[in-house]
Amino acid sequence: MLSERTFRFLNQEGSLESPEDWNSPARTMLWSYNLHYFDDLNSAGAETRSAWHRKLVNRWITENPPGHALGWDPYPISRRMVNWIKWCLKGQECDASMSQSLAVQARWLTQRLEHHLQGNHLFANAKALIYAGLFFQGDEAETWLETGWQLATKQIPEQVLSDGGHFERSTMYHAGFLEDLLDVIAMAKAYGRTIEDTWDTVVARMLSWLEAASHPDGEIAFFNDAAFGVFPTAQALRHYASQLVCELPPRHGDLRQLMPSGYLTVIRGPWYLMCDVAPVGPDHLPAHAHADTLSFEMSYLGRRVFVNSGTSEYGMAPERQRQRGTAAHNTVIVDGQDSSEVWAGFRVARRARAYLLRATCSEASVNIIGEHDGYKRLPGANIHHREWRIEASGIRVHDSVKGSFGSAESRFHLHPDVTAHRGEDANTWRLGIMGGELQVRFEGARSVELLDTTWHPEFGRTVPNKCLVARFQGADLKALVSQPNLP
Question: Left (φ > 0), alpha (ψ -120 to 50) or beta: where does 222 sit?
């Protein structure tokens, strides 16, 4: 919140001059949703803006009558109720108009739980009702609490897989779900309520998963819908959890098999690698899926080198479609097709099924082998097979495509800070990174080209970067990423 009437969401500024601006058609739906969330009430330095916040709350109550437009959608209601209640619990007065509005919002939400969307939305609904049920007193409040508690108790084992991963397979929404769970535990403990016996264990598993899915720089890897700055980092969530949970997991070692989520992470010498051998999401809920099967991200000496392209917008614009497509990720494209048929912003038709064939760890190397059938629908009934071999000296990526095809290419998207220039031959490239240099040598490539593309670390941000595109000569292509002058 930049002033009483000015805001920055998704790296875009906007103003709230008239009541119509709460639902301006000139803004994206996601931007308007953020306006209705009231996240700034509990952000860093919020106490210096408390007078602005009081006026904004009063404006919302006056200018958004019950059932009117976006502000009364279940998800923004859920986010806003929690933020208002947190704000009051920090010492702000919850006057009669605010209290009445919160009660009306809770009643409205109770009748409109997002069972049709499910996933993180439904858990956010449950969290809001738990907050309202504890904050208020009386029979109606107890009903809200019971409804929210039963919903949360059912959704946690459904949405959190046995390895701790969130079932939507988005690293970003995983962090958001973990924050929501910690908020529920904190609220329950503040009101002297006993939490479920298993929830501490769920927190530990989710935290361990998120730390494995975070690069050495502390930020998440980009798989499916993912961007920085939307939810807290693993480090921040560990600090939060340490205040609520007695025992937290140690940080992971060399190889972590995050199954059944379908991801594997490796730390070996200067290398960090995260590999995707995962479903694109639950069969009934692929809303945040990308066509990124068998993609990977890599850091060297603590700095990102190969990155998936991230997420800068929602909706149904062509750029949203491009960011979800296979070409925006570090994997193989066959005959110009996406490995999963992503469409309409949040939908997927025929989708790749991935299989982990082997994962072994020895003193010398870590080997991961997987394949997917996303291209089996094509005339050549193709299967993409990929092997990663990680040693102290480097990483080998071996791709093969079974079945006939017209063209195939493997993409290696470079972090914007990484430079690239040709080496001693057409299939060798030198990568410059801060603090070092890497060599990438391709075998079985008909050609290797350096293309201009974009990286999207946050919503509303587009950063130019480069992409190495290696085109298959035959059915196999190998890439060796190593420190210069090593075999």
Answer: beta
